[in-house]
Design brief:
CATH class: Alpha Beta
CATH architecture: 2-Layer Sandwich
Number of helices: 7
CATH topology: Nucleotidyltransferase, domain 5
Shape: globular
Structural class: alpha/beta
Strand order of the largest sheet: 3-2-1-4-5
Number of strands: 5
Largest sheet: 5 strands, mixed
CATH superfamily: Ribonuclease H-like superfamily/Ribonuclease H
Helix content: 25-40%
Number of domains: 1
Distance between the termini: 12 Å
């Protein structure tokens, strides 16, 4: 697997509904981009942050708040529009030339879908690593396993809160660092 020496790891939180029943007229919107940078030379994880995003096609409901911990008030106070979030990622992380990664394909697909919908350039490169797939391949598992189970498999603790974008990105970076070591 070819990669850059620095890899951006992201984890998205998005608007969600009980039983995945999206209300008519609404679409899945990114509401948090958790991001950090893994430096393969020094084996360090840095620049961990949550970028809260104002949903433009849906609303944060109580089910979504219960799952992610993200409230409409947080979005109102700290949120920026998705286009601004993409600019921030390009500027603060020099994202375009770097490999980027996520745990599964949802993050990649959602970034691409939202960029296409808005007609804006994807802030990330074409080089994406699906850490879930790479984990399955490395350890020759018959099926993919979730983030928490992957950490258990590696005898690593989960740092932070599950379904916090920044914490999930950080924990994904720990797994990826182990896979690439």
């Amino acid at each position: 697997m070819k990669t850059t020496n620095e890899i951006l790891i992201i984890d998205l939180e998005a608007t969600c509904w009980e039983n995945d029943r999206i209300p008519i007229g609404q679409k899945v919107d990114i509401i948090e981009i958790g991001i950090c940078k893994l430096d393969l030379k020094s084996n360090t994880i840095s620049q961990k942050q949550s970028i809260y995003v104002i949903p433009e096609r849906s609303e944060v409901n109580s089910f979504c708040t219960k799952l992610t911990g993200i409230t409409p008030q947080q979005i109102e106070e700290k949120g920026i529009y998705f286009e601004e979030a993409c600019e921030l990622i390009r500027d603060e992380y020099n994202s375009k030339p770097l490999t980027w990664a996520g745990y599964g394909n949802f993050d990649r697909e959602q970034i691409i879908e939202q960029c296409d919908w808005l007609g804006i350039e994807n802030p990330f490169s074409e080089q994406y690593l699906n850490v879930m797939y790479e984990f399955k391949r490395k350890f020759r598992l018959h099926k993919s396993i979730g983030l928490k189970r992957a950490l258990d498999y590696l005898k690593m603790d989960f740092d932070g809160n599950h379904h916090s974008g920044a914490d999930d990105a950080y924990n994904t970076a720990k797994i990826l660092n182990e896979i690439l070591a």
